[in-house]
Amino acid sequence: MKYTGGHLNEEQLLDYRYGDLAEAKATVEQHLHECENCRASYESLLSVLAMVEALPVAEPGPHFEARMWNKIAPRLQRPGFDWNSLTAWMSPKHLITYGSVAALVVAAFFAGRSSLTPKVDKTGTPQVADNTNPTTNTPGQVRERILLVAVGDHLDRAQSVLLEISNAEAGGKQNPEVDISQQQERAQEMLVSNRLYRQTAEHSGDNAVASVLDELEPVLLEIAHSPSKVSGSELEELQRAIESRGLMLKIRVLDSTVRNKEKPATQHSATRGS
Amino acid sequence: MIRMDVGDAENVALALGGDQDAFRVLVERHSRTLFRLAHRMTGNEQDAEEVVQETMMRAYRRLDRFESRSNFGTWLYRIAVNCSLDLMRKRRPEKNQRQLAKGDETEMQDPLDTAVSNDPGPDRLALSGELGKQVKVAMMALSPVERTAFVMRHFEGNSIEEIGETLGLGAGATKNSVFRAVQKLRQHLAPLVGHGHARSASGEI
């Protein structure tokens, strides 16, 4: 936050305390010297922070390090091998998600192969693909469209979770907490596919998709790691995380772009079928 | 053979090659610092010890992901922040919050009772008793993210960017978390200012 003079609000006073108004230090000092109200507010802030600082931190006993090692040593396996992470990835939920994405990639691969395979006429002569025909899809296009459909569906699901969180309200004193367990579960499931789609988009050079999925990931992570029942302030925190990045708008725009790219394939299929 | 004279990066390389003594050196070198950080975040000794153990276990499992150019202490520190955050979220059932609001300390060990602090100064003496309990209640009333952001900012001197990177939050959200934490602390504690407490040199005018 910038400071150009005048009374200091609480955020500016905090910025000043943490050295974030260094470029305006002299101006702030001058104002605090002259303005009794701002000075009182700043002194109150410092007093509260000093009270918190004075809270003692426990010092572990003299043999703490040895005790820690004795507890850790029997649990050590091969370094660099994350059993917990592997176990988490092998959970039924992740396997289903992983399997669906893998099936999709395989489908995209075979769709590409079948388009690559030259058609053979009655005499056994391979036919050259007709590149002038607008209904003929190259393998790359087929693969891209399969992935586009999947990414589009993924974005729809993400939008739905983010919208539900954004629109949620804590119910006042009687019901101060909000149950987000369903959204949390969906966010957890989406994390796996989000990573895979992001990596695929990065490999294929689709920076727009990769960038939005990259921004979506920490928000999904935040939702997935929240308690299943969040307080009003925690809910606001999640809502701010969604709003501060303008994520909803970015997802909506990308979703619409992705859906538009899908349309030609759908239209061509309809033409062929008639 | 204990390699206390060897640097962190060398010990990491040795540990990756299967030398558990090298990892033991790292555990013994960094545990105490991690404990202090975890204690500030979790508010009690048992949880702080659990965080240190979990941090070291996670670090060991992910040792191959540590880049030798980085600082091992900083890398551990980030893991410890996330372990503390996970534990605080796990430990935060609604009843705990209600108990804290009432000042019921049955689920939290009192660091004021267990601390083995050296020569308590006037601030610490002033914070004994009811005032210290109120400060603890105020700290524990912060959400896990707020408390983490505040501890990293105020006690560890991390920048907003560093905190955001560790917590996976943008700069705006990170700054808001620190601000909200300080606002809540002020709401709880400002009325107590002047009750047997002299301001220490935490800032300047």
Low-pLDDT ranges of chain A? 112-135, 268-274
Helices and strands of chain B, in order, run as HHHHHHHHHHH
Number of strands of chain A: 2
Number of strands of chain B: 0
Please render the helix and strand layout as text:
The complex is a heterodimer of chains A (about 270) and B (about 200).
Chain A: H1 10-17, H2 25-34, H3 36-53, H4 64-72, H5 83-89, H6 92-116, H7 139-167, E1 177-179, H8 181-203, H9 207-224, E2 229-231, H10 232-244, H11 247-273
Antiparallel strand pairs in A: 1-2
Helix pairs in contact in A: 1-3, 2-3, 6-7, 6-8, 7-8, 7-11, 8-9, 9-11
Chain B: H1 8-16, H2 20-42, H3 45-61, H4 72-90, H5 94-102, H6 111-114, H7 122-126, H8 130-140, H9 144-155, H10 160-167, H11 171-189
Helix pairs in contact in B: 1-2, 2-3, 2-4, 3-4, 8-11, 9-10, 9-11, 10-11
Structural description of this entry:
The complex is a heterodimer of chains A (274) and B (205). Chain A is mostly helical. Among the domains of chain A are: 10-53, no CATH class; 140-273, Up-down Bundle (Four Helix Bundle (Hemerythrin (Met), subunit A)). Helices cover 68% and strands 2% of the residues of chain A. Chain A has helices spanning 10-17, 25-34, 36-53, 64-72, 83-89, 92-116, 139-167, 181-203, 207-224, 232-244, 247-273; strands at 177-179, 229-231. A two-stranded antiparallel sheet of chain A has the order 1-2. The radius of gyration of chain A is 28 Å and the shape is extended. Mean pLDDT of chain A is 74; it is low at 112-135 and 268-274. Chain B is mainly α and 205 residues long. Helices cover 66% and strands 0% of the residues of chain B. Chain B has eleven helices and no strands. In chain B, helix 8 (130-140) packs antiparallel against helix 11 and helix 10 packs across helix 11. The relative contact order of chain B is 0.09. Residues 98-123 and 196-205 of chain B have low confidence and may be disordered. Chains A and B meet through helix 1, helix 2, helix 3, helix 4 and helix 5 of A and helix 2, helix 3, helix 4, helix 6 and helix 7 of B.
